Amino acid sequence: VLVAVGRRPNSKIPGLDTTRVASTRKGFIETDGQRRTAEPTIFAIGDVAGEPMLAHKASHEARVAVEAIAGHKAVFEPRPFRPSCSPTPRSRGAG
Ligand SMILES: Cc1cc2nc3c(=O)[nH]c(=O)nc-3n(C[C@H](O)[C@H](O)[C@H](O)COP(=O)(O)OP(=O)(O)OC[C@H]3O[C@@H](n4cnc5c(N)ncnc54)[C@H](O)[C@@H]3O)c2cc1C
CB atoms < 10 A from the CB of 86, how many? Predict the structure, then answer.
C-alpha cells in the first residue's frame, strides 16, 4: 500500500545555482508563458514549473517550450478547467 501525503518539486538540480534560474519559496522554477526561465537558454516544464502537477499539463508545456525554442509564438495558457486525472502513456492500453 502506497500512501502519499503530497509532492514537492525536485528543483535542487546540481549546478542550477550557478545560473540565473530562479525558484519560488515552494521550490517551483519560475518561468514565463513560454516556460523560459530567467536564464534565457534554460526552459522548465512539468512538475518543477508549477502546479497542477499533472502529466498532461507537463506534455502541453513541453510542446509550448519546443515551439518557442523553434521560434514560434506559442504561449502556455492555463485553463480554468482541466481533468485532474488522465491516462499517462505508461498506463494507456493497460488492463
Ligand atoms: C503516484 C502518482 C500517480 C500519478 N497519476 C497521475 C495521473 O493519473 N494523471 C496525471 O496526469 N498525472 C499523474 N501523476 C503526475 C505525473 O506523474 C506528473 O505530473 C508528471 O510525471 C510530471 O512530468 P515531469 O516530466 O515534470 O516529471 P517526471 O515524470 O517526474 O520526470 C522527471 C525526470 O527527471 C529525472 N531527473 C530528476 N532529477 C534529475 C537530474 N538531476 N538529472 C537528470 N534527470 C533527473 C527523473 O528521474 C525523471 O525521469 C501522478 C504522479 C504520481 C507520483
Answer: 13
Does 7 score more than 80 pLDDT?
yes
Q: List, in sequence order, the alpha helices (H) in the chain.
A: 55-69
The amino acid that residue 91 corresponds to is S
Ligand 1 atom 39 nearest Cα: 13
User: Contact 43/68 with Cβ under 8 angstroms?
Assistant: yes
Predicted local confidence at residue 90, as pLDDT:
60
Q: Cell triple for residue 83?
A: 481533468
**pTM for the whole thing?**
0.86
Q: Which atom of ligand 1 is nearest to the CA of 83?
A: 11
**Closest Cα to residue 56, out of 91, 82, 29, 74?**
82
Give the ligand 1 atom nearest the CA of 86.
9
